[in-house]
Amino acid sequence: MPGSVELFIWYLGTAFELAFVVCSIARKSFFTYFFLNLYMLLTVLVDVARWLVCRQFGFDSDQYMGCYYYTDALLTVLLYVLLVSLFARVFGELRFAKHMRLAAVVLLLGTAAFSYAVIAQSESRLYTGSVFAYELSQNLYFVGIVLTYLLWAAVLKLRETRTRLVQIVLSLGVYFSLNAATYALCNVAPQYGGVIHAAGAIGCLLPLAWCITIMRYSEDSRLAPAQLVAVPR
Question: Could you give the CA distance from residue 188 to residue 176 in angstroms, rounded to a whole number?
Answer without folding.
Answer: 18
